[in-house]
C-alpha cells in the first residue's frame, strides 16, 4: 500500500516567493533608475548641442583663424556624427570625466565637487527649517480653518509663491546687513577666515565644528543664516500649504469623526488619526521641495555671492563654458532623480500597502 504523501509536511514556499518578490523589486528599482539616468544624459547632451553657443568658438575665441577653429572642433570631437558624440559623452560621464572648464581651467568634476557642498549646506538648512515650521503651521491652519489664524497663514503661504527670490534677497541684505548689522554680508565666510579650516566634508559648518574652531563656525553661521532663511521661507510656504490641504481632507473623514465620538483627546485625534495618514504624500512634497531648493537657489546664490552650484552655473553661462554648464545641469538632474528614488523608498516604508 502506497504511503499517504499528504500526511508528510511540505516545505513552505512563502520565503521563496518573498525572495523573488524582493528581487523583482530591486531589479525594477535599478532598471528604472538606469533608464532615467540615461534619459537625463540624452537630454543634457542634446540641450548642449541645440543652444546657440559654439564650444569650439568659446575655446579659441572670435579672433582665431579658420584653421585654429577647425583644429578645436576636431580636438573636441565635434566633427564626428552626433550619435558617436553622444556615446563618447556617456562613456566620459560614466568614468567621471565631465570635461575641462574654460573659465577655471580645471576639470569640471573637481569644480562641482568644490561648489556643490556650499549649495547642499544652505539648502539643507532651508528645508529643515521649512519642515520644522511648515508642517506644524499647516496643521494649525487646517485645525483653525476659517479663522483669522488660517487667513494669515494662507496669505503668508501665498507670499511664498509671489515674492521674487532676488527681490527678497536684496531687501534682506539692505535691512539685516546694511541697516541693522545683524548678519554678515555676501559670501560664505569673511576673507580673513578663508582657508583656516581644512575641508573634510566640504560643509563649512561641519568642518569648523570638527576642527573645533568656533570663531570660524560663528562667522559661517552669520553668513548663512540670511540666505538659508530666505530659502526656508519659500519651502515653508509650499509645505505649509500642502500640509493644510492634506489635513483638511483627513479632518473631514469618517475615521477622525469616529475618534472624536469615542472621546479621544483632541491632540491625539489631530496628530495620530488625522496626521498619520498624510505622512506618505507629505514625504513626496518635502522631497520635491528639497530638490527645488538645490536646483532653484541660483538667484539667491547670485545675490549673496554664495560659492555654490547655482553661482557656478550662472558664471559658466555668461562665459559660454558649455562643459561647466552641462556638468552642473547633469548634477542637478542626478539630485532630482536621487531624491525621487529616496522618496519612493520612504513611501514604501511608511505605507505597507505599497510593498505588495
Automatic annotation (TrEMBL):
What keywords are annotated for this sequence in UniProt? Answer: Cell membrane, Membrane, Transmembrane, Transmembrane helix, Transport
Protein location = Cell membrane
Q: Which SUPFAM superfamilies match?
A: MetI-like
> Which CDD domains does the record associate with it?
TM_PBP2 (cd06261)
Q: Which residues cross the membrane?
A: 26-47, 122-143, 155-178, 220-240, 280-300, 320-339
* Gene Ontology cellular component annotations, sorted alphabetically: plasma membrane
Topology class, membrane: Multi-pass membrane protein
GO molecular function annotations of the record: dipeptide transmembrane transporter activity
Where would I find the ABC transmembrane type-1 domain in this sequence?
A: 116-343
Report the sequence similarity comment from the record: Belongs to the binding-protein-dependent transport system permease family.
Q: Which protein, by its recorded name, is this?
A: Peptide/nickel transport system permease protein
Its source organism is Wenxinia saemankumensis
Amino acid at each position: 500500500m502506497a504511503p499517504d504523501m499528504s500526511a508528510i509536511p511540505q516545505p513552505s514556499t512563502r520565503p521563496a516567493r518573498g525572495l523573488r518578490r524582493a528581487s523583482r523589486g530591486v531589479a525594477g528599482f535599478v532598471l528604472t533608475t538606469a533608464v532615467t539616468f540615461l534619459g537625463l544624459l540624452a537630454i543634457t547632451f542634446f540641450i548642449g548641442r541645440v543652444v546657440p553657443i559654439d564650444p569650439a568658438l568659446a575655446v579659441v575665441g572670435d579672433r582665431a583663424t579658420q584653421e585654429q577653429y577647425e583644429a578645436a572642433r576636431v580636438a573636441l570631437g565635434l566633427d564626428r556624427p552626433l550619435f558617436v558624440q553622444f556615446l563618447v559623452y556617456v562613456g566620459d560621464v560614466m568614468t567621471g570625466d565631465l570635461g575641462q572648464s574654460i573659465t577655471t581651467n580645471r576639470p569640471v568634476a573637481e569644480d562641482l565637487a568644490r561648489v556643490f557642498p556650499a549649495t547642499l549646506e544652505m539648502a539643507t538648512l532651508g528645508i529643515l527649517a521649512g519642515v520644522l515650521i511648515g508642517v506644524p503651521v499647516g496643521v494649525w491652519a487646517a485645525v483653525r480653518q476659517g479663522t483669522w489664524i488660517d487667513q494669515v497663514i494662507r496669505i503668508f503661504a501665498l507670499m511664498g509663491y509671489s515674492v521674487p527670490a532676488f527681490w527678497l534677497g536684496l531687501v534682506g541684505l539692505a535691512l539685516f546687513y546694511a541697516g541693522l548689522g545683524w548678519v554678515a554680508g555676501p559670501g560664505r565666510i569673511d576673507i580673513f577666515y578663508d582657508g583656516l579650516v581644512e575641508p573634510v566634508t566640504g560643509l563649512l559648518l561641519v568642518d569648523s565644528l570638527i576642527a573645533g574652531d568656533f570663531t570660524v563656525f560663528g562667522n559661517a553661521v552669520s553668513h548663512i543664516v540670511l540666505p538659508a532663511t530666505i530659502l526656508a521661507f519659500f519651502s515653508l510656504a509650499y509645505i505649509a500649504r500642502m500640509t493644510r490641504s492634506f489635513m483638511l481632507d483627513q479632518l473631514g473623514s469618517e475615521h477622525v469623526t469616529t475618534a472624536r465620538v469615542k472621546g479621544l483627546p483632541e491632540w491625539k485625534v489631530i496628530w495620530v488619526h488625522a496626521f498619520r495618514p498624510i505622512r506618505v504624500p507629505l514625504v513626496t512634497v518635502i522631497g520635491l521641495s528639497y530638490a527645488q531648493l538645490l536646483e532653484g537657489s541660483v538667484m539667491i546664490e547670485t545675490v549673496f555671492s554664495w560659492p555654490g552650484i547655482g553661482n557656478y552655473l550662472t558664471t559658466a553661462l555668461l562665459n559660454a563654458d558649455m562643459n561647466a554648464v552641462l556638468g552642473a545641469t547633469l548634477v542637478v538632474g542626478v539630485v532630482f532623480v536621487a531624491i525621487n528614488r529616496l522618496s519612493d523608498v520612504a513611501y514604501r516604508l511608511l505605507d505597507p500597502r505599497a510593498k505588495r
